Amino acid sequence: MVILPILHRLGWMQWEELSFDWLLVCVYGVFAVILTYAICWPLEALMPVEPFQGRKALLTDAIYTVLARVGVLPITSFLVFYDVQVWVNRFAVQRGYIPPTLETLVPSLLGHPLLTFALYALILDCSDYWRHRLSHSFRCWYALHALHHAQREMSFWSDDRNHLLDDLIAGLWFGVVALLIGIPPLQFPVLLLLMRFVESLSHANIRLSFGRIGDWLVVSPSFHRTHHGLPAAGRTSCNYGAVFPIWDIVFGTADFRVTFPPTGDRRAPEAIATGRYLEQQWGGLMHFSAEWRRARMSKSQRSRPAP
Ligand SMILES: [Zn+2]
Ligand SMILES: [Zn+2]
User: Fold this and answer.
1) Residue pair 154/260 in contact by the 8 Å Cβ criterion
2) How far is the CA of 243 from the centre of ligand 2 (A)?
3) Highest mean pLDDT among 79-83, 101-105, 273-277, 281-285
4) Ligand 1 centroid to 228 CA: how many Å?
5) Which ligand lies nearest the alpha carbon of 225?
6) Per residue in 109-141, pLDDT tens?
7) Quick one: residue 183, left, alpha or beta (phi over 0 = left, psi -120 to 50 = alpha)?
8) 3-state DSSP helix/strand/coil percent for the chain, to nearest 5?
9) How confident is the model over 36-46, as a mean pLDDT?
């Protein structure tokens, strides 16, 4: 509404379509952040697990959220995903192959859009469970994911606190699965909006579990805090699920104890725990390259013949 007359005045109407897309994308992202803030902030004020000590750390996490939700996430889920899906479908059709959707794979889902939508969410969440679990299984990958775990004061802003490389892997992982199961382009951003809201809430500094049954259905702040909790060994190995705990139950990694432990990663470099945004990104890259070199050295030592 504001942009179009300006473009017209400047004679830049060829940008009209593009500017509309961008506007839509920004509105989507801003809406997601405002909704998350409006629900999570009062809850954090009402029943915090711990009082916040460092406003700087909170502010840095907020920068991650705004960058991810107003910029990267809507752009990739609305624009890039749409273009890639159109291109992949055209490529497949030209070669005589009709890409499947969940409804064509399971015809009984036809006419049940809500059920199909929920199934898409469950499948995406299952793939995310494995991405997350694998990121804890490989030391090099965990070196990137450590940026997420290094936060000692979790809040609803902490969900997007990730290394850019880790975000890139997650985006590609999610996008490929979404393409494989044929999520309709406009459903994808809506699904992400809902899933990311649950993920923000699960990181919030709230003394809240959803009860015996609720905790089995949706990931609660208590459930995800246990994943972030400081164990004696230094790394956690439970509660990888982002939205539905069902995958932790099925694959034997669920821990439903309601304990609200202190969080963080004792082995993470200080730069990624308390640095500013760029310091964290750089520190994460250094941490990753140190782990990479260490892994290569131990591999070459193993392959060297014994004297
Ligand atoms: Zn993790
Ligand atoms: Zn987390």
Assistant:
1) no
2) 11
3) 281-285
4) 7
5) 2
6) 888 888 888 898 999 999 999 999 999 999 999
7) beta
8) 70, 0, 30
9) 93
For the stretch 186-235, pLDDT in tens is: 777 788 888 889 999 999 999 999 999 999 999 999 999 999 998 754 44
Going by C-alpha positions, the residue among 204, 197, 187, 158 that lies closest to residue 35 is: 197
> How far away, in angstroms, is 224 Cα from ligand 2 center?
7
Going from the Cα of 164 to the center of ligand 1, the distance in angstroms, rounded, reads: 15
What are the extents of the domains in the chain? 3-301
* Distance from residue 14's CA to the centre of ligand 1 (Å): 44
Q: State both tokens at 223.
A: 């459930």
Query: Which ligand has the minimum distance to the alpha carbon of residue 199?
Result: 2
Q: What is the dihedral of CA 40, 46, 50, 55, to 10 degrees?
A: 60
Q: What is the pTM of this model?
A: 0.84
* Residue 117 CB neighbours (<10 A): 17
Ligand 2 centroid distance, CA of 154 (Å): 9
Q: 44 C-alpha to center of ligand 1: Å?
A: 22
Question: Residue 285 corresponds to which amino acid?
Answer: L
- Between the CA of residue 237 and those of 7, 159, 228, 232, 248, what are the distances in Å? 53, 18, 10, 12, 11
